[in-house]
Amino acid sequence: MSGECGCGANQNFDGSSPAYKRVLMIIIAINFGMFFVELFGGLASGSMALLADSLDFLGDSATYIISLIVIGMPLAVRAKAGLFKGISLFVIAAWVLGSTVYRVFVEGVPEALTMGAIGIAAFAANVISAVLLLKYKDGDSNVRSVWLCSRNDAIGNLAVIVAASGIAATDAAWPDLLVAGIMGSLFIHSATRIVQQSWQELSLEKLRQTGSGDKCGKSL
User: Fold this and answer.
1) Per-residue pLDDT tens for 195-208?
2) pLDDT-based confidence at 176, cuts 50/70/90?
3) Nearest to 140, CA basis, from 195, 201, 80
4) What pTM was estimated for this model as a whole?
5) Which CATH class is domain 35-210?
6) How many CB atoms lie within 10 A of CB 97?
């Protein structure tokens, strides 16, 4: 078999199973639902934090739809989808840090009660998503990026709840800024891992297409 020469051994799960597709559709529905919950909550309370997080849910929904579409496509296509989502995480990290700094120093102290209440609902939604995806977390870059997004969002929502408690206790904005820094670092770490895996998969596919995989015993 190909594993004897180390070429293409242990191919990662690519999402091509009815069970995984059902899970992904459930998670897309959860994220779309939470987008509207946080959008209306943010508009009602004037909370920029909630409006920002609602866009994160919307962005996740869009990337999960991309993940669903590319399932079963060639490795190069799936890897490019993973690469796109990795780059998107870098953009989100920059946006989270920048918007939070702006909110803290320009708009003042966020509203702790609204942050905490809707943060709990968002945390529950993302925990459900992460649990559903747990057994698929070691798939290819496309599948793995879905797991990492859900896990990061759950950690981020928990951090928002902690920040809201800190804001309520201190009546200061620094807990929000601290949490933003932690979340931004987490996004950057996950983005780096997804991009690295995507590049590895693209390199593997390029080797196969150029015939470098002939070391596995194939002859021209």
Assistant:
1) 887 788 788 777 88
2) low
3) 201
4) 0.65
5) mainly alpha
6) 18
